[in-house]
Amino acid sequence: MFKIGEFSKISQVSVKTLRYYDQLNLLKPDHIDQFTGYRYFSADQMFQLHRILAFKELGFSLDQIRQMLGEQIPLEQIRGMFRIKKNEIQTNLDREAAKLARITERLCFIEKEGKDLTSQDVILKEVESQLIVSCRQRMPFTQIPSLFKQLDHFIGSAGGASQTQMVIWHGCEECEEDMDIEVARLLTHPIQAQPPYTVQRLPEAPMMATLIHHCSTISRCTASTELAMWIEKNGYRMKEDEPRREVCLPHKKFADPNSYVAELQIAVERA
């Protein structure tokens, strides 16, 4: 038997923590002297304490740990708790990865601030009328890949062939987290439309300001800001009621599956 102070030194866990675990019925002393009130712990309890500390490092709350160490809790329930914790950690990792990507892009933009975009960066060109099949929804932009999968499934069932991907960004004054987004594929020939999918012709654009950029599906891109700066500086303005278009371009696969290369297109006219 070890007094609480001795057990604290051996385990490298403070006396205050051991007393707190006792109050929570998480780690009770093996023996309490009825005359002195001294708490005594056995060497076997070191294993239980190590298990508590290991679960705590994994992110479980003390209440959850108490449940898992209970003798009556089924093994399957413990597995379920670990699966839930695993999903929580994965969600946090994905969220932090998205933040890291946004920070990286913001750093790139900060480095570009104050530097003029050259005429080689932005190209003015005419875009012909294009036949597309599309689906328009209000959603977070991170859902674009999922919506493309649904669109491609529809195209295949309708007997069409998947061509170039395009995202049409509609303005949405009332949107907050969700955005008014239309995902589309170019078509070589018409197919039968079926809600929520539509087949339509995009109007020709006599003058498009275009910029090829590298971006990600999980973070906001600065290409629109860069193109807007060029439009303003060079004496143009955006045409009203003409949404931005973003045409995905063929490229070698990136290590990051969320990365892509696209041509941003904004219809403009002389200011």
From TrEMBL:
Coiled-coil region: none
Keyword line: DNA-binding
Domain of life: Bacteria
Database matches in Gene3D superfamilies: 1.10.1660.10, Regulatory factor, effector binding domain
CDD domains in alphabetical order: HTH_BmrR (cd01107)
Residue span(s) of domain HTH merR-type: 1-71
GO MF terms held by the record: DNA binding; DNA-binding transcription factor activity
SMART domains: AraC_E_bind (SM00871), HTH_MERR (SM00422)
SUPFAM superfamilies linked to this entry: Probable bacterial effector-binding domain, Putative DNA-binding domain
Name of the protein this chain belongs to: Transcriptional regulator
